[in-house]
Amino acid sequence: MADAAALPGLEQLNGLVRSVTTPEFAGVTFHEVLAKSALNHVPSASAMPFDWTVNPYRGCSHACVYCLHPDTQVLMADGRSKRIADVRPGDVVVGTRREGAYRRYVPSKVSAQWGTRKRAYRVTLADGTELVASGDHRFLTERGWKFVQPAPAGSPQRPYLTTNNKLLGFGIGGPARGARETADYRQGYLCGMIRGDAMMLKRRYSRSDGSGSYTAHRFRLALADSEALSRSRGFLDEAGVATTLRPFTTGTSTRRAVNGIFTSKRADYEAITDIITWPEAPSTEWSRGFLAGIFDAEGSCSRGIMRIANSDAAILSRIGSALRSHGFAFVQEAPRSNGVSNIRLLGGLAARRRFFELTNPAITRKLSLIGDAVKSDAPLRIVSIEDLGETIDMVDITTSTGDFIANGVISHNCFARGTHEYLELDAGRDFDTQVVVKINVAEVLEKELRRGSWHREPVMLGTNTDPYQRAEGRYKLMPGIVSALTESGTPFSILTKGTLLRRDLPLLTDAAKNVHVTLAMSIAVFDDELQHLIEPGTPNATARLETVRAATEAGFRVTVFLMPIIPHLTDSIAAIDHALTRIKEAGAVRVVYGALHLRPGAKQWFLEWLAERHPELVSSYRGLYPGATANAPKAYRAWLARRVRPLLRVHGLDGRAEEEHPRGTPVAGLADRADARSAPPIITTSRGRAATSLRAAAARPAAPGSEASARLF
After folding, report:
1. Which option is the CATH number for 73-177+372-413: 3.90.550.10, 3.60.60.10, 2.120.10.30, 2.170.16.10?
2. Where are the domains of the chain?
3. Rounded Cα distance, 249 and 260, in Å
4. Single pTM value for the model
5. Whose C-alpha in 150, 480, 576, 600 is 20 to 30 A from the C-alpha of 623?
6. Comparing C-alpha atoms, which of 192, 191, 260 is closest to residue 225?
7. Ranges of the chain whose pLDDT falls below 50
8. Does domain 183-359 have CATH number 3.10.20.580?
9. Each residue of 9-46: pLDDT tens digit?
């Protein structure tokens, strides 16, 4: 039984029976549910040109995952760090984006977080930063994105990390720590804060009635920043010192309001005096807290320069000692006319971020690096990559920029997460590592098909997620679904990219004797190396073509979705002709094609990948898909049609044979929904609902070359 936390919101998943992991599906958790319904009715407002679907799975076990150790520190947009295990959808982290000549740090919204189990590798950098990740995780190097480990034996090669690489970012100078507040840290913080910004008064006064004198004890800490004031008050309370919070000065149009904490009790005053006494041998935790406190009290960070100002020689000396004890370089500037000196931290962004990660100051506004350029002299060369020899729990997130900062370096997230939403699935819950399995779908479907209200309308399989994904090999749900549809006299169509379809060909052949059955195979890329990069975890073109051949030999007239055609990579006459030749040789009777469609999320990843693999094409793609544009321009699609249609006619794949052999449920292309994960088919709809021009064009056998677009992921 898997931990329910592995699937965010799992407690809300109706009908959950159990969650399981198995060795043959490493990194995938199957959430077995009892479905209440199997037939999904397409809403009447939908432009989908069919009415009914059956989806035995939610999520797809074809895809890959990239994951990190749960304690990995993710830099949030406010400048603080959070364990990746604690990051949640809706949080805003720091990502990066290329702006002009520089890549810059920008806010990036988290859309999903999930967990898995993967074999662990430790990457150690020259500054001491450590990253524990799966072999499939990628980090940004000076030579582009690279995986932690090379591709498995027998798979196309991929760029991977070596000790010749340097990662981009700033590092954290050691293993991930996280914010800690030990007793020594709290005492050091109060010492720095109170010595830097508080007022402590002990004075003898004569009594007004002339009966002698008394000693007044006064403590006051007044700050405009509520975060530091709240932390100080809390730390004092833990030390047994109770304070009163009240306004100190009111705000104006040019000045923030200031609140203060106060006490006038002798016992409290003496306790505070003890707390801020200089220790003879400061511990590293005391020094860490002292630096945080004195920075909150007297520090600044402006234009990439961090300073701590004070006029007290003893305090300046202690600041220097604390910095040296933690390996920071600094200079003490000459005092100004008012006697105040600045201690300036050296080492740029890397040193500044390490200071913040180490000390954890309270005042957030001083920590942000949003807008800074990604450039650093930090020693982030890889010194070792170590196989830890164990499989551990790991976590990953999806962000709007496609990346995030992990332990101070730029880390890739799984590029396909955001593109899962168009399948009407949650990008984090229902994806390749979290597959929801409707284990009773066949039984429920059988009952629904026996209802008197069922009119045997055509049913589509493959419109949401692939019914013959790898998980089907474990759960074997399709034979029951096929049998239920056949026995009820319901025609159906199947679209898949999975070769597991061959297992059920005898059953499908028998079904076709009683009902109309149509099959389609999605094959986007015929170059194995390119296919592995674009469709990781899926069967290659040869394996899919063998499935087409087997289905043809079994008597089916198979349609192939040549989608998406990728500009400059798979759109040459030679590449298209090669693909159509192989498709024809496999026995297919029809091809539906479409141009690349780059959705947000997928677009970010694809352009990053393009910059790494084909930098010469980046400017062309930015012209084809400017800004938020997802569709290829009409001019390109028209050019592609002029190139493809004659080749379709030459190879006899233009659908004319289908006109001569009409079927009750002809499979064509749902052009603007087809994609490299599961390109859904189109059938004639009993409702006669009008399709959009693109869908209708793709549906007409006489014009398979009409404008269409295919999503990449």
Report:
1. 2.170.16.10
2. 4-62+419-711, 73-177+372-413, 183-359
3. 9
4. 0.53
5. 576
6. 260
7. 1-13, 45-47, 63-65, 415-432, 659-713
8. no
9. 344 445 778 877 766 565 567 788 898 899 987 665 44
